[in-house]
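Exercise 4. Each item below gives a protein and its sequence. For each, produce the structure-token representation.

Item: Ribosomal RNA large subunit methyltransferase K/L (Marinobacterium alkalitolerans).
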Amino acid sequence: MKLFITCPKGLELLLQEELTALGAQETKQTLAGVACEGDLELAYRICLWSRLGNRVLMPLVTAEAETAEQLYALVGSVDWLDHLRPSGTLTVDFNGRSKGINNTHFGALKVKDAIVDQIRAATGQRPGVDRANPDLRVNVHLNRGQATLALDLSGESLHRRGYRLKAGAAPMKENLAAAVLIRAGWPDAEAFPVMVDPMCGSGTLLIEAALMATDSAPGLMRQRFGFSRWLGHDAQLWNRLQEEARERQYQGQASVNAQLLGYDSDAEVLNRASQNARRAGVERLISFQHQALEDLANETELDRGLLLTNPPYGERLGEMSQLMHLYRQLGSKLKSAFGGWQAGVFTANPDLCKVMKLRAEKQYRMFNGALDSKLLLFTVHERAPGDEPSAMEVSGAGLSEQGQMFANRLRKNLKQLARWVKREDISCYRAYDADMPEYAVAVDIYPGHAVVQEYAPPAKVDRVKAFERLQDALQATAEVLELPRDSIILKQRKRQQGHQQYERQDAEGHFLEVLEHGVRLKVNLWDYLDTGLFLDHRPARRQLQALASGKDVLNLFCYTASATAHAGVGGARSTLSIDMSATYLDWARQNLELNGLDARAHELVQADCMKWLAAPAGRTFDLIFMDPPTFSNSKRMDDVLDVQRDHGWLVRQAMQRLRPEGTLIFSNNYRRFKLDDALRDEFQVEDVTARTLDPDFKRNPKIHCCFEIRHKN
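Answer:
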């Protein structure tokens, strides 16, 4: 019989070699598959033993099928009672299209109708449809007016071995993991007595490695195949092949001596990996340990082995700079502890591997789903003296020439700001803000810590060079401030949408207390993109504090209510602060309590500010502060907020709640903001932006705009 075995793109050559080893004849590669010839035993062996295939298709007929009528006739030319009982079930997988069939659902329906109509006409019975567990799975491929009708003998894709019920983020499929292992030379007990995956996730690479090392057929774990209830199924032949596979597995497990080690920093996903290994029957062969990459060491002390991993890649799982730091660590660990080993990294972004400072000896292109990916293979040589930064360099010495220029600029800025910082009595401020174009970062000082915010580089900037400069900036900041490296917190800023800037980034859950003009405030440098305190709005908060004595104050879009705390310390009679987030309102409550402000006079309300403003005006205020986000489409909101489009409405609604002699302080951070001219006709408007830029933000005058708005007359 003729067979066609599908596979992920990039695996065709390996699959052809695998099929030849299984006994296939006349093999021929095509895109994402291999055609071959053989008997039913070969088809069963492929289902049982293929580590690389997806589906085993047995073509029945190929002919022209440009129209629905031609397709119906083609399907009807097959005697379906040879394959399916009249009371059985089927499902149809249809792909491709033609001029007359431009919808895969329609094509599948015509195929199903032709089968059902034929059997009903011959027997009076009508087969049913079962998409999950059919007795017969029919596959139709339509290309350039030619349709190939085939039986799917595999049923569910062969990559689903049956051991992995849950995977981690961005999982690698089992057959792709097997291909990566084969390309890396596994299993070779002489060359690789041990295999290590330092970022093993749900354990797929290690489990596939164990199955290969023990000569275990990947299909042995599956309960069902597409041929299980096919009328052409030879149960006696299948049972013989299964028994042969079990005997090979038994002998393989008894003789295997490979050592498999898996590490990951996520304890939950490691637990999942252990469960997967248990279901695959290889749990005794793999040691899983909870460990971060920075703690990786060669525990075996062997001078040869295989380190193979599929680390996170792309912004889907993390920011590029953080990932480059991860890859840099991996390269450093390989050179320091795994000399003489072979290493392989599978990634959809090979640029990340450049920071490993290792030269790939071989590269193989494969596809992880739709992701165009590469496997890079390295021979790790012993680290030469001076190849990597020494402990002294990591601690602060040995900056590059440009890095030293950055350090000098940071020192200069700190010196210029020192007298002002002391006079203003503030403990957090910005010391550097992209002063040098090569170093597009901001450095914010907090007690005992610094936050380095990297502005996402344009696409044209080489990512590796940008990463190297960022490492310079981090090292220089630690050196200039005389802080340990773990007191420098790295964040990446890019164009934000909605409340993205407020979203949780981590879960450290600890706070620092800072001081600003006599007001005590809590900040969190770790868990969110922003710290809970917008440093550039410090002058606006100071103005609120100066104006608040004896007044009723409203704070809209209050965030952590730092402005409210200033108003309260300034002697406000009462305050009302409104925000949608319960998390930030709880933070706001802590800020108010920290300054001894009574909750009865200083009220916090969880509400959509736009909805609250749209309600009929009731309570009025002497002083209103409004600093809305540039854009928000939060699920908790009834509508989308665009500050440029909506600010006129926001201001007019707020002015309805402002008493005749009151002041509205309206600000936002949209760099291209333009105030609606009609507001100047309706109200007394003063642009006070220049007055709301302290010395630490004078270098970035477009960071925000600020207006004081009052009623006319």
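Check: The first helix runs from residue 12 to 22.
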